Amino acid sequence: MSSYLNSTALIASIKQRAMVPESQVTFTQQDFLNFANEEMQIGLVPAILQFHEEFLVVETEIPLVTNQSRYSIPDRALGSRLRDLAYKNSDGSLSEMTRIEPENKVFFRGGSGRTRQTTFYLENNSIVIVPEVTTATGSILVSYYQRPNQLVLENKVSTITAIDILNGILSVNIIPSEFTSSAKYDFLENKGTHKCREIDVTPLSISTVNKTITFNTADIPSDLAIGDVVALAGECLIPQVPDELHVVLAQRVACRCLEALGDAQNLQLANVKLQEMETKMGNLIDNRSEGTPQKANNVHSTLRLAKLYSRRRY
Asked: Which of 4, 5, 30, 167 could lock 10 by a disulfide, CB 3.0 to 4.6 Å apart?
């Protein structure tokens, strides 16, 4: 038995928890998934982030462009927020970047010919580097919380059955009718937190007869494995959170269903159970490295800055 719940198993769990009859016509399968996607965004994900244990964090590198100081925050960034930002020099060394308020940008103007970027501010959905980038040297490493993909039914995704890495050909169990060669796709891990191995990849061709999808070999992740999933960009088959929290998601949706049905008595009982599950959730996902406590390190102390300056001199 799998430790996780895919969309089909999740719907079955919701029905069982809310005592929804199989013959009912009130909720469709898509209704259950719509509830699940909403509860994921407004309930489960914020609960996970409050523990600050680096769930959902991904990093992307954005090369700097000559005479361009404004760079878009990644589209998949949850709440259009950043986890961290660093400047990567052409030699691979990293430098901390400091966020400033937009009204203070006038104090950081000037310094033409500067090649090491250290300050930025946020404006709408953009990262604005100051002073202006006049010479394209290095890149910025953007760390952010990636928004979980939307749950869809099993017939909307493909499961990989074979991988021909030399020719970029993936054999799959089905080719959904929604799949076209002009669409973008995500490669999804079938274990762990079911993260995206790669996002927004465009295929070269799709064969419904042979049940194969061909990609540029450079776009196929090196760790892609048989059993992983290919889905339309932004969609997934399994909730992209730790397996142990899938039942919490099912309970949240069951409460939504009972509320919609007006079943006040069972809703009260379901909410009590949900509160118990969420209270104990921290025992499962908090303090992920229990035997190695996190070290408190004030990198901005006077002594620390003096050591950093000394190393840079030599």
From this structure: 5
CA distance 145 to 68: 25
| Amino acid sitting at position 68 | Q
Closest among 266, 246, 245, 242 to 255, alpha carbons compared = 266
Helix (H) or strand (E) holding 85: strand 77-88
* Cis ω before 63 (30° cut-off from 0): no
Q: Which residues pair with 159 in a beta bridge?
A: 229
Tell me the pLDDT band of 1, cut-offs 50, 70 and 90: low
Helices 29-39 and 7-18 pack at an angle, to 10 degrees, of: 90
- What residues contact residue 61 under an 8 Å CB cut-off, 6+ apart? 88, 139, 140, 141, 142
- Ordered by start, the domain boundaries in the chain are 7-52+148-243, 57-147
| CB neighbour list of residue 206: distance below 8 Å, 6 or more residues apart | 175, 179, 180, 181, 212, 213, 214
